[in-house]
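Why does this matter for the project? Reviewers at the last site visit asked to see concrete outputs rather than summary tables. In response, this paragraph embeds two records directly. Each consists of the residue sequence and, immediately after it, the corresponding structure tokens. Nothing has been edited or filtered.
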Amino acid sequence: MKKYSLPIILLLVFSFSQAQTRINQNLKMELDSILKSDQILREYIDSETTENRKLEILKETGYPKEELLQNTWGIINKQDSINLVKVERIIAEYGYPGKTLVGEPTNEAAWNVIQHTGKIAQYFPLIEKAGADNEIDYTKVAMMQDRLLASQGKEQIYGTQGAGRRIINKKTGKEEYFRYIIPIQNPGQVNELRKKAGFTSTVEENAKRMEIEYKVYTLDEINNL
């Protein structure tokens, strides 16, 4: 068994203690609460959420089922606005609250809030730097970049974003809801790019997860539906 001298042991204990105190516990608790409020109602409307879990969410949030069903996205959007104010205050004081400051998975809290607002373009450079500095997983950078490009009417890169719209089926003449993966810049290399970014699934597998049948479309094809 390897033996260590007392000074080395004390140094190791001190180093571990310093690593522990780097985490801002108060900020971590605040961001954990923000992340929970960002996710909980989205969990409620997720198709994979069980009825028992939905009852737990209703009890936890205090919303009557009827009110939540009638105005789900109105309630979610209001909470998103509240969360954004909190996150912008945190960013103004600390910069991006990443892994070093608040640990994992709390380092994804601010990302989730920004991803659900109309301020992605403003904050994407900050998220990109956080990814480069290993303060947040690079897949999060890729997802935000895809959402930003899609919001600008451009092709995405990694195939992370799906969409849906009501169209008239030209064969049947009937209205239907059409879901698709937003057009990709280089569909032939998308899985290679996904792998480099850190994704463990293919674009086809990701589409299936979103209950979308994957098919390659151009922007023109989507715009002319």
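We now turn to the second protein, recorded in exactly the same manner.
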Amino acid sequence: MQLDSILFQDQIFREYIDHQTSDLRKKEIATMVGYPKYQLDNEIWSLITKTDSVNLIKVENIIKKYGYPGKSLVGEPTNTAVFLVVQHSPKIAKYYPLIEEAGKNKEIPFTDVAMMLDRKLTEARKPQIYGTQLEGKSITNKQTGKKHQIIYVLPIKNAKEVNSRRRKAGFETTVEENARRFGIEYKPYTYEEINRMN
């Protein structure tokens, strides 16, 4: 099925860049996708960008034809394919109402709706609700003058209550545990503090 192929393509490169993916698994992924590992190491983001744009075209055609292809139409986990492609696209604002409706109708997990809401809010530079969205920034070390990348969880509205909201939404990890998946410790920031980082 086309959606299963889209789901695989969306997730396989992202599994490669996950902080918890072992080197052995990365070699397996390289074999599965038909690229040498050194090429994936050097070009992974351009491959993700290219795959995302092709998948978005396919998904928009599917939405036009069927609406949201949820659990009752395509089963699980195929029902998450359209959500993931939209989540990784520049068209969240356009499709969020469709995703929200699919969540209300239990066609996709509510955690998917929560992640897209967080992405929608953070794209507008507003505090997120569930603490699912991270960002990276290149900053200069004042002593050495060298640039390095830092990653952080974007600001959260009423951050002290975030883990309670996450539990109610169906997330199995705390915001701190989720941050560690990306190799970082969670620290609460405001957008003003992030803007001052350089």
